[in-house]
Each structure stands twice: as structure tokens, then as C-alpha cells.
Write a structure and sequence with these properties.
Layout: H1 9-22, E1 26-29, E2 41-44, E3 48-52, E4 58-65, H2 81-93, H3 97-107, E5 122-127, E6 135-142, E7 147-154, E8 157-165, E9 172-178, E10 184-191, E11 196-201, E12 204-210, E13 222-231, E14 235-238, E15 242-248, E16 250-259, H4 271-283, H5 287-302, E17 306-308, H6 319-326, H7 332-349, E18 375-376, H8 380-384, H9 386-390, H10 398-419, E19 429-430, H11 442-445, H12 450-465, H13 468-488, E20 490-491, E21 498-499, H14 523-542, H15 547-558, E22 564-565, H16 606-619, H17 625-637, H18 641-651, E23 662-663, E24 669-670, H19 677-690, E25 691-692, E26 698-700, E27 711-714, E28 716-718, E29 722-730, E30 733-741, E31 745-751, E32 761-762, E33 783-784, E34 799-805, E35 810-814
Parallel strand pairs: 22-33, 26-31
Antiparallel strand pairs: 1-6, 2-3, 3-4, 4-5, 5-10, 6-7, 7-8, 8-9, 9-16, 10-15, 11-12, 12-13, 13-16, 14-15, 17-27, 18-19, 20-21, 23-24, 25-26, 27-29, 28-29, 29-30, 30-35, 31-34, 32-34
Bound molecules: alpha-L-fucopyranose (FUC).
InterPro entries: 6-hairpin_glycosidase_sf, 6hp_glycosidase-like_sf, AFCA-like_C, Alpha-L-fucosidase, GH95_cat, GH95_N_dom, Glyco_hydro_b
GO biological process, one term: carbohydrate metabolic process
GO molecular function: alpha-L-fucosidase activity
Amino acid sequence: MKKLVFTSALFLVALIAQAQQSTALKLWYKQPAGQSWTDALPIGNGRLGAMVYGNPEQEIIKLNESTFWSGSPSRNDNPDALAALPEIRKLIFEGKSAEAQALAGKAIIAKKNSGQMYLPVGDVRLDFPAHQTPQNYYRELDLKRAIATTTYDVNGVHYKREAFVSVPNQVIVLRISADKKNSVSFTTHLMSPYKTSLKTTTNQLAMSGLGVSHEGVDGKVRSHTLVKLVPTDGQLSRTDSTVSVQNASSVLLFVSIATNVNNYQDISADEVKRCADYLSRAEKIPYTQLTANHLKAYQSLFNRVTLNLGETPAAKLPTDERIKGFATGNDPALASLYFQFGRYLLISASQPTGQAANLQGIWNADVKPAWDSKYTININAEMNYWPAEVTNLSELHEPLLHMTQDLSKTGVETARTMYGARGWMAHHNTDIWRSTGGVDGAFWGVWPMGGAWLSQHLWQHYLYTGDQAFLKANYPVLKGVATFYKDFLIPEPTHQWLVVSPSISPENSPAGRSKASIAAGVTMDNQLVFDVLTNAIRAAELLKQDTPFVDSLKTILSKLPPMQIGKHGQLQEWLEDLDDPNDKHRHISHLYGLYPSAQLSAYRTPQLFRAARNTLEQRGDVSTGWSMGWKVNWWARLLDGNRAYKLITNQLSPVGTQQGGGTYTNLFDAHPPFQIDGNFGCTAGIAEMLMQSHDEAIHLLPALPDRWPSGSVSGLRARGGFEIVSLLWKDGKVASVTIKSTLGGNCRIRVPNEMKAKGFKTVLNAATNPNPFFQALAIKDPIVSPDAQLIMAKPRIGQVYDFMTQPGKSYTLNL
Ligand code: FUC
């Protein structure tokens, strides 16, 4: 490797730093949240979540703890499935979908328990009766510090409240201060929507809660909450249900919460002791140190990535006004704020050894949240983790990977008892108890693919990190899910292709079979099984084991259905050409192959690539929040930055201004109601517009919209252990890129423009990338309907450069 030119790299890094500093990473408002939860600001440490309202006269802090769920260890397999399976399959192949669906509804869908609910713990409320007419009101959530701050003046005194949730110290910390001595007086309440017991002592409130019973499962999760007030001076007083402080100069308030949950099968912990231990450890630490601990832990993750898409005067406006103006105005810094907010949310909602972020992350105030605020694994839970690797938060992927490992245990019994198969599987939902049965009715719940999709995250984690020990430890999970399909696939009557049956193309039904979604061999299933088998084969080969098993999987792979292009030029959703070009359904599951999977490529599968585009055109843009988040990724993969940008404008529209979802005042995504997946989907999509690494190369600026002609990003991660240390672009061209290798190996980059490539090898597009992390998938040629009109466009090839890398070394290319 020749010495590379580093000349202007330092200068460019300085430019990036400068640009980053001018972009204030804050959500801020001129008014309090009032009673509106989606105006309140979320803080969290993965386990504890809080929504801070910032109301001067009554502060409300809504509390969550990630293991406070309804029910107790439980399962929801339907034992009737096995006997009914042959009949359901027969009916499907005979075209009797309505009958098949009716039978599956009885035999496959769980009889009672459709999964448990994620519950709110309660509220801390602080009454400041004298603060009715505040002046100079301001509140913010500072993403650089993960601290929510409220400030205002009353009678010439300046008040300040700062709140954060500490990962290292495991408590919620609130500090209330004033710029005049002895001015802080308030009364503290602790309450819950459930029956609880409440006790107070001089400076402390204690509340015990019991999670509700739900759908026949006894509520056995206990929560314990302690609120401790530590005033600098002044007087404390109490009643049976409140603790008040008078005339303090400042007050430190700790909220500690714990439950008795150890894991999905063990709820024997002592929540009272746990809660007290967290508190007693934290309260010994001075506030400045607590803050320093918090900042250190948070910033070690958050600061890994910076993004500058440019800044306009709109960036000076409060966040709610920016959301209103985004679609029609020019505010690129709101897109970068939204991107960083997605990273903030993942750091706040998903920490190693904890629970995976659920439908609402960790923030839920409802006793009966939408879809139980659990895990829908036919898209939503996976979407939550799309930003994890690419936005350099790989460790935060762990809770989802862990949940997948748990399901690979609980799902063994479901595979065996319901389908007579070895290995493991899950249907389209799960919960903290790792239930794997079918739920919500046959139309939605007959989908034996949850494990197939979740297991992709294990393989992708490996592709990004190259962690051999991780691969070895998780090989049984990958093998287990492949084993399930090995046993479960059956030949369909027309071509004898091996297919999944019964199943659905998530939540959609083909035209002409109204209200019957049940089917065999739907495209998404074929794509998922393809990935499951391919991952298991590659993992086994890398680990040099299981040769006969690998051979058996290769035989199955060769018998899977090819993708098909239907008469409307669309990628077919079902085995038969049944798509309706006017169908606007939010799920476009067969585009799984385009994103997050890497089966469709502008360069390798041009017809399928074009058909996917047609499908997306036909489905339209506006939809529920998560669906629009997915579409950002799809348009990015289709290398169409302007269309991806259009979807971002749809997503960043105020809720209620269009038919589908949008964005709440606090930047939460709206399904509606709030669902966090859309935040994460769009965050991943923005990364995908700037850099992709699924298609044999690190592709820089693959889908840059005209609206972001110049900018910079640092810290994105690519497959093969590469880090984009910095990427600077000007007028749509890559001006400079520095890539760090952690694993070594060939680095191939695809760039829109020529670079000074001294020391680099220009490669022809057709050459295979020798780096095994960039191995392309072998996709069968599609079957194309004679009626399909495919207007083929040549993809932008750009320039492709290869260079050999060494672990730990960085490489720079300039314009
Ligand atoms: C799936 C979606 C819905 C919703 C729910 C939580 O069922 O079809 O839109 O997001 O999950």
C-alpha cells in the first residue's frame, strides 16, 4: 500500500467541527407541555423512562420502568394447530382461503393471551402554587447532554429545573434551583393509575405497585418507587401522601424505581431492596459528579456521530414551529436534529442487559396502550434497531439480540407443539415473557416468520463488527431458525417450489380475496427464508462445522421460489399475480428484499430493482409513521435521494396535517398514536441516503437529495468493520473521505465523482469484492409477466475504488 495523501484532511476535520458547533442540537419551546404527553420531553437510561412536562405551576414527570408489564411468565401456544395443519394447508392450495383462515383462526391463534402490556409506573408531580404567571418561559431537551431543562421567572426570581436519567447511577435526577436564596417551595406527590400503597417519611415518598392481570395471566410484577428530596436548606414537612419543601435555595430530587423481574422466566427479585440500593448508592454522589458520570456515559455513545446538512435561519425557531414549516420551507438542520434525536432515543431506550425498545421505546403513560406497547415483530421491533449499527451504536443492539436469543428458547416449544418442527420460531408479536404464539386474529397473526426476521439482526451485527466470538455463540440460534424452515417448508402444487404455509404477507390481503390474507409462498417469506438459510450456511462455513447440514440447506435454497414481476410491472407480493396497483396498504412487506435485506440491487438485479420501484410508486407516499420511515430507506436504496427527501418531509409534518402519520411537537413519530419505530426508521433512512454498505461496496452519497448539496458526516459505520471517520461533500460531490478499518481487508468504495486515487486501484464495476463481508447474495433470475412493462434506466455507476486496509489504520481520499 502506497502512502496516501493526507494534505487537506486536517483542514476538513476542522471545518466539520466548526459546522457541528453552530448546529444547536436542541429541542426547545416557548411554552410548557400542559397536559399533552406528546409535548413533554423524553429522557431515559434504557431501564428508567420519564416524560418531563415543564409546567411551572405543576411539574409532571411520567414514570416508566422497562420491566413493569402486565401478567407474569406465560406462553400462548395453541395446541390445536398441529392437528389442523394439514387441512389448513390443503384448503390454501385448493384456493379456499376463507375456510383456511377460519380454521387457522381457531387452531393457530392463541385462545386467550395475545401478549401482555407494557405498563406505566405513575407520576411524580410537584406543585408550585405561586408559579401561576411565569415570565420568560423556556424549555429544552439538549441532545448533546441528554438533559431536559425548564427556566422561567416569577417575581423577579429566575427558576431552573434540570432533569436527566443516569445510566451509571440508575436513578432519575431532578434539580430545582433559583437565583435567589430560599426561593424554592413546592409539594411533591407520587401517584399511579393503579391501586398502590403510598407511604411518606420526612424527605421521602415510597410507592408499591402491582402489575395488572391481563387476558387470563395473573399480574405478578411488583414495582417499587422512591422519591427522595434533598434540599440545600429550608424546611421539609409531610402529610400521609405528600412531602413539601419550603424556602430552599435548591432541591435535588431522586427518583428510584425497581421491579421484581430478573428475566422472562424469573420474577423472584426483591424490588424494595433493589430500589433502595439504587437510591442509596446515587444519593451519596454529589450533583456535579452525578452529572459528570451521566455526561461521560451518554456522550461516549452520542458523540460518535456528527451530521451537518447545513443551517438556515429556520434553525433559530422553536422546534414546534420548525416542524410546521419543514415541508414548505428550507430547514436542513431539522433533518439532522431528527436524525440525532433518533440516536438519542436509542441511547435512552435501549441499553445493554436491559429490555429491547418496545413499540413506544420505554415511554408509555396509558393503562391500555395501543397494541399493548409490546413488540410487533413483523416490522416494528426490527425497525427500532435499524439505526443501531450504521449510526455507531452497536452495543445498544444487544437488548434486541438478547430478546432473539430468548425467543430461540421459548420458540422451540411453539415450533414443536404447533407445527411438529424442530428448531425455533415466533409469530408476529412477542412481549417481555417472550411469548411466541399467534395473536390478534388469523388475518394478522398467522405469520410464522418472526424468528426469521429477528435472526437477521444477529447476522447483521456480525457483518458490521466481524465479531467471531459473537458469531460462534449465536450460531445455534441461526441454525435453530434454519432448522425450523427445513422442517416446515412444503412443496406447492404448481412448480414444487418449497414454500412457507400457512402464512400471510403481513397484514395485507390480495385483491379478489377480500378479508382473507392467508396464503402460501408469499414473496416476503421466500426472501426471509432465503436470508435465514444463507446466514446459517455462511455462519457454518465460517465456523467450519456442520457440512451435511449446510448441504441440506443448499438443496432447499435451490428449490425456493424465484421473485416474480407481475403484470403491472410490480414486484409480486404473492406467489400468484394478484397485486392491485391501487392498493395503498402501509405494509409493503415484499420490499423487505430491497431493505433491510440486500437481495435487490441496481447493479446485480436491475429488473427486480425496477419492479420494486414500480411497487413503491403504486403504493404512494403518505402512510402511517413507520411505513413512511421504511419508505425513506427504500427510496435511498433505490438511489433516489429526492424521493427519499420527499418522504422525510411527509414524516416531518405536524400530526393531523396529512392523512397518515407525522411528527408530534416533541419530535415523536405518529402512527398515530405515538409509535417510536418511525423515529428510528427515518433515522436509519437518513444514514442510508448518505452511505450504504450492503451491495459489495461502501457507497458514498448514494441518495443525496438536491436539498443537501453540501455537508458532512462523521462516525457512520459500514459492514466489514469500517468506520466513515469523516465524509465531506460539496455541490453533490465527495470532497474528502477518511475511512478507518478495524478488521482489515479490501475496502471498496463507490463514489459519485472521481477522486484523487493515487495508491488506489480503480475497479471495474463487475469485479467481485474479495472482502467476505461484502459478498453479494446469489439471487435467482425473476420470472417476468409477459404483460409487465419495465422501463429500464441505467444506474449511476460513479467511480469504484479498491484499496487494501490494515486493522486500526485510516485512509483518506480527496477530490
Ligand atoms: C402492525 C402494523 C400497525 C401497527 C402495529 C403496532 O400491526 O400493521 O400499523 O404499527 O403493528
